[in-house]
Structures are given as structure tokens and as C-alpha cells.
Design a protein that fits this description.
With 366 residues, the chain is an alpha/beta fold. It has two domains: 195 residues, Alpha-Beta Complex (Quinone Oxidoreductase, Chain A, domain 1), CATH 3.90.180.10; 144 residues, 3-Layer(aba) Sandwich (Rossmann fold), CATH 3.40.50.720. The protein is built from twelve helices and 18 strands. The longest helix has 14 residues. It starts with a strand and ends with a strand. The relative contact order is 0.16.
């Protein structure tokens, strides 16, 4: 799975409209003071490395473009997408974000939930005061961000800001991976690797909503959680190699990315589909990372007989965000939140996520 860019990140008026980079100056201040003075706090990163390189600094409050919405952030979530950009892991990230160091003014963060403060002249579906959630390419690790209206949806009243912020990247990836790439239908058998993480916990629930028989693969401490989410069977990855069961599953959603393609194909029933999300492990080394596994799948597909190997580009459009919101409001899908941090604790949230022990999502609140 790769991420299609959902528009521009926020930045002050007068910056390059293609990147909307933000210039930083001074030290951070309390949220209220920053908002009143037309500036905001944001997590800057001017060199690649661990979360230790992040600095909380002041920047100009962004102005929304014609089709954008200025959202005052109330909560957000962290994803592997974030720490991979922070570390330039894989190195392929440097081509877009800066070869030697990140381009000036970049702010991490994709998932957010908050309150609409201002809208661009082309925006018709949102107004100031609306509670919303959605996704940006970069920029959500800040007190406010300009978000394309087409990647926002109204937050259901019964959902907290933290719960809503957990939905976009992981929820949309799970939804589109199963529904669009996997073409999952009722009665099919689906296996989900990396099932205890952010994407996986959504995937298990969505597969059950759609009437599938779900096998979840995760670590030994995740069985109770995954069964509570609806998994029909949980395989302990430390005790059993599911590929040794032979051809069994109609759809295999590979989030972990920790096995060669040939091993995954062993587990697919005739006519089965392997959906490659990319995963944490990957087999592309420091240069390609998870993209290496996806590239191999693309190259192999023309020569594969009896199975379908597919990738997809997750797109956080309003329609799918609304679908997730409705399912969450109806209690059919529950955002699983492992830990919640304060905005000023974001580096620690990233450190925790990097340990790969999170069960569900890791969020932050203002």
C-alpha cells in the first residue's frame, strides 16, 4: 500500500503553494497565547533521526487555500508513516522530502480531529464550528492545519476527538484494502497479518461487518483483544507459521510484510488474492523498505497463475471517512486506542510506536 497525497500541508501565506512549507522562529508558547497572537506551536524536524530531533517551535497560523479548511487540532494519532518520514526510513523518502535533511518548515503528522476555524471560498460542506476529522499529507503535529476539504468528514457526536483521530489512515487503509483491493465478500475466508496494530484492528472488525470468516495473526498477548473484535481464529505468530497449513484463505491482507511472496502464496486458496499493505518489516532494506515487497509483487504478478497479487493507493476521501464514522457511531467498528499522550509528549508517542508493541492506535490530545 502506498499513500496518495491528499493535498497540501499548512503554511503561512506567501510560501510556495506546492509545498506550503512553514518557517519557524522563537520558542513554543502555551496554546491559548499562540492562538490569540496568530501563531501556533508545531513539531519541527530539521534533520533526519530519532524522535529526539523533534523541536516544538512557533510558526505562523496557516491560511486555508480556496478548497481548504483551517482546522484547530484537538487530537491526532501517530502512524509508522510518521516515524518513517522522521528517520528517512526507507531512504527513498529523501527524494521527496530532502536529500541531506528535511526541506525547511516540514511538520509531521497525518491523522487529525478538531474544530473548523475558517474555510476557503471554494468550500461548501463545512463551516466554522464544525467538529471534523480527516487526514493531510503532513502537518497535523501542530495546533492548527490547513486540510483539503475532500479529505475531511464531520465527526459523529458520540465519538471523542481522540477516537475520531484514530480513524483516517489506519481505518481507510483497512477498508480499501479489503473492499477494493481484496474484493472481500460475505462467506469468504480472510487472513490478516499484523492484526493487532492500528490497521489490523480495523481490518478484523470490517471483515466481520462484511460477513467474512476472519483469521488474525499476531503476537501471543493479542488473542483476547482480537477475539473481542470478532476474529474467529487467532494464530500466535511465535508458535505457528500459518503458511504451513497450505492453500486455505480466499483473501490475505498482509500488513506485517515479514515473509517472502512465495510463502504467502502457499496459504492462498485457488483464485485467492494477496493484498500487500507494505508492512513494518518489509524486505526492501534501507533503500526501499516496505515498498520493496510491493515492487516485487508488481513484477511477479504477470507470471503468477491461479492467484492475484495486488497493491493499492489508500485515499482518505470524504465518502470513506463518512462510512467509517457511521460504522463507528453504530458501534460496528470501535477505534482501539492503546495509549494517549499530550501534544507536548509527541516524541514519546513516536518512540512507543516504534517499539512495535502497540495494540491498536496511539493518539495525542491537546
Amino acid at each position: 500500500m502506498t499513500r496518495r497525497k491528499p493535498g497540501r500541508t499548512g503554511g503561512p501565506e506567501g510560501t510556495d503553494p506546492g509545498t506550503r512549507d512553514t518557517a519557524y522562529s522563537g520558542d513554543s508558547r502555551d496554546s491559548g497565547d499562540a492562538a490569540d497572537s496568530g501563531v501556533m506551536n508545531a513539531w519541527a524536524w530539521d534533520r533526519y533521526g530519532s524522535p529526539d530531533v523533534l523541536r516544538l517551535r512557533l510558526t505562523t497560523l496557516p491560511r486555508p487555500g480556496p478548497d481548504e479548511v483551517l482546522v484547530r487540532v484537538r487530537a491526532g494519532s501517530v502512524n509508522p508513516y510518521d516515524w518513517r518520514h522522521l528517520r528517512a526510513d526507507p531512504a527513498l523518502i529523501r527524494i521527496d522530502k530532502g536529500l541531506r535533511r528535511p526541506k525547511p518548515g516540514l511538520v509531521l503528522g497525518a491523522d487529525l480531529a478538531g474544530v473548523v476555524e475558517r474555510t476557503g471560498p471554494g468550500v461548501k460542506d463545512f463551516r466554522p464550528g464544525d467538529e471534523v476529522f480527516g487526514e493531510v499529507t503532513l502537518g497535523a503535529f501542530a495546533e492548527a492545519v490547513a486540510v483539503p476539504a475532500k479529505t475531511l468528514a464531520v465527526k459523529p457526536p458520540g465519538l471523542s476527538f481522540a477516537q475520531a483521530a484514530a480513524l483516517p489512515m489506519a481505518g481507510v487503509t483497512a477498508l480499501q484494502g479489503l473492499r477494493d483491493a481484496g474484493r472481500l465478500t460475505a462467506g469468504q475466508r480472510v487472513l490478516i497479518t499484523g492484526a493487532a496494530g492500528g490497521i489490523g484492528t480495523f481490518a478484523v472488525q470490517l471483515a466481520k461487518v462484511w460477513g467474512a470468516e476472519v483469521t488474525a495473526v499476531a503476537g501471543p498477548d493479542a488473542a483476547v483483544l482480537l477475539r473481542s473484535l470478532g476474529a474467529d481464529e487467532v494464530i500466535d505468530r511465535t508458535r505457528e507459521d500459518f503458511t504451513e497449513r497450505g492453500p486455505h484463505w480466499d483473501v490475505l491482507l498482509d500488513i506485517a510484510g515479514d515473509r517472502p511472496l512465495s510463502r504467502y502464496r502457499r496459504a492462498l486458496a485457488p483464485g485467492g488474492t494477496l493484498v500487500m499493505v507494505g508492512g513494518i518489516a518489509g524486505h526492501g532494506g534501507r533503500l526501499l523498505g516496505p515498498a520493496g515487497q510491493i515492487l516485487r509483487g508488481m513484477l511477479a504478478q504477470p507470471f503468477v497463475r491461479g492467484h492475484r497479487i495486488t497493491r493499492f493507493m489508500a485515499w482518505p476521501g470524504t465518502e470513506d471517512l463518512q462510512l467509517l464514522a457511521r460504522l463507528a457511531a453504530e458501534g460496528k467498528v470501535t477505534p482501539v486506542i492503546d495509549r494517549s499522550y499530550g501534544f507536548r509528549e509527541l516524541p514519546e508517542a513516536l518512540r512507543y510506536l516504534e517499539r512495535r508493541k502497540a495494540r491498536g492506535k496511539v493518539v495525542f490530545t491537546m
